[in-house]
Amino acid sequence: MEKGPFSVEWLAQSSRGGAQPAAAARRPRSPGKGVSSPPDAPVPAAALRDREAAHRSSPGHEAEAGGGAPPGRPRTKFSAAQLQELERSFREQRYIGASEKRRLAAVLNLSQSQIKTWFQNRRMKFKRQTQDAR
């Protein structure tokens, strides 16, 4: 019996690299760039080790040995003036609108994403402080 795509069995096989959606399995592969072997060919042990290493180092997976921050954007160090303006805006309104986010980003020389993240983190800090005060 052929297992349909996204069945439990198919998903279990696909996580091991052994299954494809039914349409992809029936479609003939044209030889070309990036096609090195048929989908049912055994994967060399070195390739499996490389895939596992890449999986462990992908975001969302803790490093097994040693610490360190995951790769990506380094932590933003806000200046005192930036923090003062962000805190002033937070006191006025805890949830920032799109226009205010754009204004703050331009005035403080930060990205809108940084402004959004700062507000999210500040709301969580506010929530912890109010819960601790009770």
UniProtKB/TrEMBL annotation:
Chief place of localization: nucleus
Keyword DNA-binding: yes
PROSITE patterns the record matches: HOMEOBOX_1 (PS00027), HOMEOBOX_2 (PS50071)
Domain Homeobox as annotated: residue spans: 69-129
GO molecular function: DNA binding; DNA-binding transcription factor activity, RNA polymerase II-specific
DNA-binding region: 71-130
Biased amino acid composition, Low complexity: 12-47
Keyword ATP-binding among UniProt keywords: no
Alphabetical list of Gene3D superfamilies matching this protein: Homeodomain-like (1.10.10.60)
SMART domains noted in UniProt: HOX
GO cellular component: nucleus
Localization (cell): Nucleus
Location of the region described as Disordered in the Swiss-Prot/TrEMBL record: 1-79
Biased composition (Basic and acidic residues): 48-64
UniProt cross-references to InterPro entries, sorted A to Z: HD, HD_metazoa, Homeobox_CS, Homeobox_TF, Homeodomain-like_sf
Pfam families the UniProt entry points to: Homeodomain
Alphabetic keyword roster: DNA-binding, Homeobox, Nucleus
CDD domains xrefs: homeodomain (cd00086)
Matches recorded under PANTHER family: HOMEO BOX HB9 LIKE A-RELATED (PTHR24333), HOMEOBOX DOMAIN-CONTAINING PROTEIN (PTHR24333:SF14)
Annotated protein name in UniProt: Homeobox protein vex1
Taxonomic path: Eukaryota, Metazoa, Chordata, Craniata, Vertebrata
Gene: vex1
